Amino acid sequence: MKVKLLFIVLIACLLASCSIDNTLYNARKYFREAQARPIGATGRPNNQAIADYTKCIQKCGYILTERPRSSQAPEALYLMARALYYKGNSSFQALDQFQNLIRLYPESKLIPDAYIYLAKVNRDINRIKEAEAELENFIRNPQFRKHHARALLVLADFEIKDKDYHRAQYWLEKILTEYSDAKEHDEAFFLFGKNYYVQGNYSASLTEFEKMIKNRKISKDLRQEAEYYTALNLFMLNDYERSYKIIRSNIKNESRPDKLSQALVLKARLQIALKHFEDAVSEFDYIMKTYPRTAAAAEANYYLAEYKFYKESKLADAATSYNRVRTELSTSDFANIAQRKANAINQFNQNQNQDPINNLQQYLDYNYQSADNYINPFELPDSALVIYDRILSQKSRFVALADSLGDEMHLLQLSMDSLATVIPEPDRESSPQTVAIPDETITKSTETDSSLSKPDPDTKLPVTTQATESIVPGNTPSFPSFPSMTSDGEVPKDTYLSERDSTEYEQALVTETISPDSVETILPQLNPQQQTLQSQIDILKGRIEVHQASIRRFDQEIIPYINFLKAAIYKKHFSESTELSAIYSFMTAYYAENKYTTAIGNLIEDKPIRLIDPVEERAEQKLDLALSFFETAPDSMIVLLNELKASEFPGVKTKTQFRLGWFYTFEQPDTLRARDFLDEVLKTSGSSDYATLIRRFYDGRNFLFNLPKPVLPDLTEDKTDTDSETPKDPKPEDGKPEETPSGDNSTLESTPTGETDKETEINPAPVDIPEDEKPKEDSPEQETPPPPPGQQ
Prior knowledge:
By secondary structure, the chain is mostly helical. The protein contains 30 helices and 2 strands.
């Protein structure tokens, strides 16, 4: 009986053991099947793969629940963590399971792989520093040397994604030289070639991939990817025929959806390069329909938009395709640049018919922004130069209009003068006349009073009459008789005015008795034709003044600024052009003391560029000199500071006032004198760092000497007195641009006035010149070179 019972127990244990073994076997099987399924075009596992990963997780969970202390538990936990990781939507759960594996089974042979996967998961959940730290600690541990190659490969992949290509190359070379027998060697070889490609070194990348293709030992998948990058490098090197041949072969042998769609995009791009435009458009349409919401569909839309913009000049269609990039895949590498180009096209279509005569500032804003968009993101500097020359040519329109209006005004003035010779001689013996006077010449109190008071007879007012005939040569104008005034000062109803005229002027006319002696003097002023002519002359004067102001703005602001923008383009994109020298010659001849002339000179000599008025720069140099006397000759410092305390430049003035206030507060105490300087800083620069520092020892009324003395800042380091956000465009309401510092010939961003010393890159941006920093016009007596084209 005991033997029989023991036999039954043994059979039960064997069955249970087989059940556990079968469970782990099935978990491994589901995981292998999921891994074998192709990745979708989205780069994520398809639905069948996700289902297999889920079954694997369930099987492993059963083992960990029923037999947590069995020898199979570590593998089950490792398998579950990997399934959660590859499933694609359970990164945090995978992180927990890998950490549990390391914590619960530290002696397991799976620990090295768990560390590597732990770094991958941390990377996926955006713990980038933690991920790299995990791997760098791992490769320093000699205990895991057999697994160092795998860790180095993952680390190199991280560096490539972070665009730290030199560091990635270091790790890859370490694998290729020190771990040549490792199974990761071939994959490292592939990443080595890819690293050259992402750096833009297409020749070196091509060489590496061609070597890789010749190696018969590499896997089929790596060979296919090497062929794709070979074709891609040939495309970037403009060898389109060879590239097209290789990519067609690659497409025939590729079965992975994500890789196949990628190859199809390259094929369509090659068709455009080979001028098979209809085939390329059809290929793009096929990709977008077959692989929607994928990286390939987003890329296809982007390159289709490029074709429509650059080849067909269909801006509306291009904008539509650019906008679809983000719709297809918001995380696409092309999403941001496509959105910028779509926005630029929208800007091109807005207010494109701006007329500078009607609104010069709006015209400038539109064209400056358009030129900036052509430079970046479309990389069409030629188009930007065309826009700048078009702006410069508008000055001639203003000059022509001002001259034409001047001629017209001169003719009107001649007509005015001719009228003075045809006015009839008044009858001096006639009774006093009553003359109609416009109510605009009466005080406001008269306008509000229902009964108008009679003006002082001694006061001579301008007289208005109603014209009955037009003035033509040989025709003397006739003037109506003046109405008589009643004894009470009222104008009779039966005056010379018609009923319509009487109604029109009933509330606009007042009367005044004028003696015959005064009629001759003021009668010409009563001529309505002269009034009409004078009104027209006044209007023309106003229009001429507006045009002359625009001409001055071209001479003082627009021309020097645009020449600087053009110089930056020629320097960056056309290094062999002679235009840059021509622009500099023009600027030195006509704008010798202009900040843009100095900037162009520095640009030519590859020196750092700082856009600042020369006068302001000299004031800053004087301030620096004064501050340098602090220890050796403080009296000299005070003398120079007193000369600068009323400077016209806010930055210099604020620093000077602050330094004087500090001096009379702490170094040579005289609080009465210090108070004046400190109050001025608080009043004019209340939000600056200097004002903030002042409030630590002076609250605007009392000195706070009971508090610790603050540290005097180095005033020579900061050239600004306030910090503010950099505006993108100039404000159209005043038309005054912000100061524009620059640096290493790459981009030029506009910055607020008062921040002229910050050094940034040079790239033309739509800004104007502040009114108080307009360049001075020079009129050199010596012979000067003619202006560059478009500036006559």
